[in-house]
Amino acid sequence: MVVAARLPPSAHVLDLGCGEGRNALYLADLGFQTTAIDISRSGIEKVLTVADERGLRVNASVCDMRDYGFPRPFDLIVCQGCLHLICRNEWEALLERMKTKTPNAGFHVVGVFTDTVPEPEDQRGLMVGLFKEGGLLEHYRDWELLDWASSVFDHEHPGGIRHKHAANRVTARRP
Q1: Residue 75 lies in a domain
Q2: Residues 168 and 92 in one domain
Q3: Using one digit for the tens of pLDDT, what is the confidence trace for 105-155?
Q4: Residue 114 DSSP symbol
Q5: Which candidate in 34, 90, 151, 164 could, as Cys together with 86 as Cys, close a disulfide (CB 3.0–4.6 Å)?
Q6: Which of 171, 144, 175, 155 is nearest to 80 (CA)?
């Protein structure tokens, strides 16, 4: 994560919707004060188990991202692959809260699925807040854009289920 090199050593980072903690564990391994939240109890248990095995400190807890209270500002907020799982009005409000809890010169790395490719049949009804292609950029027009990507990719789930997803990712810095 290229942003990590630009953070101060004592940075507070948040992995919002962390899943099993790939990003949170990476950031904790770099020595950052890392918080990870996810709605999945099994995901948080895995984060804590792996962190313990590696001797890392991660403040991980089960929480619905819509209810997260942002108890402090974060120098970096990572939110990958989960905003499209909540309704548009909810993710819009959450993005605004994220922005207000990021200090000047702080960063966001946000990845979302878009409606460029229809929602896969096997996931029908889960992606209630798919973004419009390029729509994520609108929410960061007042920030410094460091990186932007749009892609369509094949994805395979356990059990051999395959489908396509379309995604946008933004890396931005608050001015």
Answers
A1: no
A2: yes
A3: 999 999 999 999 888 776 777 788 999 999 999 999 999 999 999 999 888
A4: B
A5: 90
A6: 171
The pair of three-digit structure tokens given for residue 153, joined into one six-digit string: 């990719």
Q: Establish if 139 belongs to a structural domain.
A: yes
* Same domain for 88 and 49: no
pTM: 0.93
Tens digits of residue pLDDT in 81-108? 999 999 999 999 999 999 999 999 999 9
Contacts 24+ apart (CB under 8 A), 89-95: 90/66, 90/129, 91/129, 92/139, 94/65, 94/66, 95/139
> Residue length, the chain?
175
Q: Decide if 74 is inside a domain.
A: no
Residue of 96, 78, 97, 92 lying closest to 131 (CA atoms):
92
Number of domains in the chain: 2
The boundaries of the domain holding residue 150 are 81-175
Structure tokens at 145: 């854009």
Q: Where are the alpha helices (DSSP H) in the chain?
A: 22-29, 41-54, 88-100, 135-138
